[in-house]
Amino acid sequence: MSPAAADSRTTTYREELNEAMREALAGDERVFLMGEDVGRYGGAFGVSRGLIDEFGPQRVRDTPLSESAFVGAGIGAAIAGMRPIVEIMTVNFSLLALDQILNNAATLLHMSGGQVSVPLVIRMTTGAGRRLAAQHSHSLEGWYAHIPGIRVLAPATLEDARYMLAPALTDPDPVLIFEHGSLYNLSGQLKASGAPVDISTASIRRSGKDVSLITHGGSLGKTLRAADQLAAEGIDAEVIDLRTLRPLDNETILGSVRRTHRAVVIDEGWRTAGLSAEVAATIAEQSFYDLDAPVERVCGAEVPTPYAAQLEEAALPQPAEIADAAHRTVS
Asked: Around 9, how many Cα atoms within 13 Å sit in the side-chain half-sphere?
């Protein structure tokens, strides 16, 4: 076995989220997990499976079906010195706790004149592509990225699933982590000797010189497949994984555009007033004279997400659509 093979393991996105929480719980007695069905059931998506057996019901707490109540409890615990990880089952349920997140967690540091910080981590599942219909397929990361006072993360790889939690727990401000539901079964090799990642920067997942493809979360895999398709046609696409949606890493985004002179922004969320609009506006404002073509956007269709598989697929960004947008910029 080669040294490189010995230093890696086959794993899944779900397993690495679980391992990240296990390490956090074992390493700091202030850390605890709370949410609906996170205990005996192991989480709606199996992410917390086995943790209650290892750490007990005081540190892996099942909550009532009241997002406003248990997010509020997490805020109070954070203020009191704990390091809570609050799991909201899916992003649509987070709307029931939006008052707590926006009016309390995000504002208390400012409104207290810097006296009260809220070191809270909230995890939630986001995204479509799993035939869960209109009420359970939202991509609302852009809504939360609009709010000052919080950090918004979107891990799209095994490494980020494993190593984003530790720095999030050390952040003195609230951190929201959006886990795309289509990624839980993502499998691959991960180095056993990894370390916490920088949760302030985007990542260049593929280098290129002809066009920048800028995306995050569940759209990263589709964007990489589009880049492969473009490469077969002689177009060298660079793929940027935003990873941190607030604050955006404008330096990496603009640096890529200045190299390629073209940009396509891919966002599963709706186009109107969405995250893609913020990225496109930033490029237009700060790198307009570097562009050789208008910025293209590939977004989710402006409809409630359909249930039928073929309609849902048509409503979401797909590799062919991404490649077509890249073609328009290059031509």
From this structure: 11
